[in-house]
Amino acid sequence: MSVEQPLWRALIGYRVLAVLYSAGVFVWSYEEYSAPVPGAVFLAVLACWTFATLRNVASADRCTLPFLVTDIALGVAGILLSPVADGNDQVGPTLPSIWVAGPVLAFALKGGWRWAAGASVLVGAANIIERGTITRTTFHNVLLVCVASIAIGYVIEVARASERTLARALQIEAATRERERLARDIHDSVLQVLAMVQRRGTALGGEAAELGRMAGEQEVALRALVSSGVAPRPGPGSGTPGAADTWGDPPGSGAGGGRSSEREPGPGADTGPEQDAGSAVDAGADDGAGPCDVRALLSSYAGSRVTFAEPGAPVLLPAQAAGELAAAVGAALDNVRKHAGGGPDGRAQAWILLEDEPDAVIVTVRDDGPGIPAGRLAAAEAEGRMGVSLSIRGRLRDLGGTAELVSVPGQGTEVEMRVPKHDD
Questions:
Q1: For a Cys-Cys bond, which of 335, 369, 373, 397 suits 257, CB 3.0-4.6 Å?
Q2: Secondary structure letter of residue 390 according to DSSP
Q3: Both 82 and 103 in a single domain?
């Protein structure tokens, strides 16, 4: 709703009350007028004009410049006609009385303080001509109308500028959220495939190595694009910059990042080793608005190296929120598998804990890897590796939740993801 729209409605009320007041003053002092007929005719015309043009002062679009000129001309004409009706100066107020402030305020609402200043000066000059001299009362009334109209005009200009700024900010926020969503999808699919092609091509050699090199270059360019043009810097000893995933080239513990195409399926999973983390989400969540049991989505991640602990009762969230939460958990597990060494074979063990609280659903992903070096996450984000910021924190932020990451060198990494429950 426009900030100025209530002011237009207030102006409609003011004009109606003002014309009724002017008519009341005239009727009350009728016998004191030396020539009441011209005054009565003018007030009849003024009343008809006021009620007939209420629609014109309903908004800035309807309040056109020709209407404003006619409106203020009618007010000035009433001021200059007052000496004819009140030749003995017995009544005091002019025929339009306080109604004449309405056109000035309309100028202020339509064009800002500059239009208001011009209209108030015109009305002030008409009052001085009607009185024939500048008296204290005349000067006070003119100054009051002038200050009030200019102040309102200035407030309108500020309100309009604020509305434009707010609208632009909302557009930027919407565009940023959409870009982050697209960047998450790209990170969780295209970038991972390109990284896999680069690694496999390098390992196979020959023509495949050239294909891998080209895939690595495209990965670098795409990472720069989704991270607002921040070009990734090559890691130490890395032949192709950007070839390593989310946490960068140095090995670190993982609960946080993008999906992998090498996820180990859980017991009973009817998928091959190339199933990515999004498959579990697709298996248990759809685009419907009904509730979804988060346990069903997360249980597919359980395996020989992933332990899943869940409540005995269903943990329900809207399908879209449950799917995004499961995708964030999959991203965390992918980084555990890719970056956290811990067991005898250099692979870490991970644990998933699902908790159902009265106001939120909490999922904790912990691993026994070596932990993340201090400052590594910030450096990875600067290099265009947006796994933690987009695939995990971005998803939780869009759901109104949070993702807290704690890493202790030598003791592994823990990510706590909290999604609030929204009661219908």
A1: 335
A2: I
A3: yes
